[in-house]
């Protein structure tokens, strides 16, 4: 079964179905995600199209979906000295469900993963310094 999700409000997407879910997350010049809340079914194959809708050519963004229990500030602070990398170091990668490469203005990338056990999972922007304002959550039901 393939399910296409439709956004009815700028900041909220609700999806139904259990096998596949396609979602879209945008990041722009204000360092915030739209939407900031996503929903997925546990066990579903989730594909997120991550788009950098910003106009500042030098402004990159990265979608990083954290496992439950990962401290957002500790994780984000580790990224500060890395200068924006496409591939996270192994110890950080192990703390994620999935992550995109850095995405330049006007570009996009796809992130795929199997939705884990029910719960709330935080996603952040992995570009150094963006994790404080560039964040949201995926509610897995």
Task: Give the number of helices.
Answer: 2
Percentage of residues in helical conformation: under 10%
Order of helices and strands: EEEEEEEEHHEEEE
Stretches with pLDDT under 50, minimum 5 residues: 1-17
Instruction: Give the tally of β-strands.
Output: 12
Q: Based on the structure given, which CATH architecture is correct?
A: Sandwich
Task: Just give the CATH class.
Answer: Mainly Beta
Distance between the termini: 17 Å
The outline comes out as globular
* Main sheet summary: 5 strands, mixed
CATH topology: Immunoglobulin-like
- Portion of residues in beta strands equals 35-45%
Structural class: mainly beta
Domain count: the total is: 1
- For CATH, the homologous superfamily is named as Cupredoxins -  blue copper proteins
Rg measurement, Å: 14 Å
- Mean pLDDT, to the nearest integer, reads 88
């Amino acid at each position: 079964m393939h399910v296409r999700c439709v956004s009815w409000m700028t900041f909220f997407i609700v999806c139904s179905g259990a096998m596949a879910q396609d979602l879209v997350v945008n990041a722009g010049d204000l360092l915030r995600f739209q939407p900031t809340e996503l929903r997925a079914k546990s066990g579903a194959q989730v594909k997120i199209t991550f788009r950098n809708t910003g106009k500042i050519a030098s402004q990159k963004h990265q979608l990083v979906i954290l496992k439950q229990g990962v401290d957002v500030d500790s994780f984000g602070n580790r990224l500060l000295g890395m200068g924006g990398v496409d591939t996270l170091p192994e110890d950080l990668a192990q703390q994620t469900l999935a992550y995109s490469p850095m995405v330049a203005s006007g570009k996009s990338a796809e992130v795929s993963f199997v939705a884990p056990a029910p719960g709330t999972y935080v996603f952040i922007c992995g570009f150094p310094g963006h994790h404080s304002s560039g964040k949201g959550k995926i509610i897995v039901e």
